[in-house]
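Form 7-S
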Amino acid sequence: MTTNHLAKELGKYYRRERNKFVFVNGMTLNKLAWEMWERLDYKEVDPSVLSRVINGERLLTFDQLLTFIEILGISQKNKRLLMEAFFLDLSKRFSIPGVRVIMEK
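Output:
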């Protein structure tokens, strides 16, 4: 299991309605995953992958994260927070000590 910084940050962009995840743009997990799949040239993500990401069981790729941000229309400030969480989890996953993420504002 990966660390959960990204999963925690992603949690700000969806809510649970019964047994569904509904994102801030109104898309369900399935709809969002298939939209990401389409934008990523019909590869890389499906509902099970996205579910595992939001449950902290895996990481998105950098391209998947950028696509997620684009589809949801996430602000620059919040994009930075997601990117920092992504790089923090990535550095821990690959045991890279002392990695500091510096993002442009």
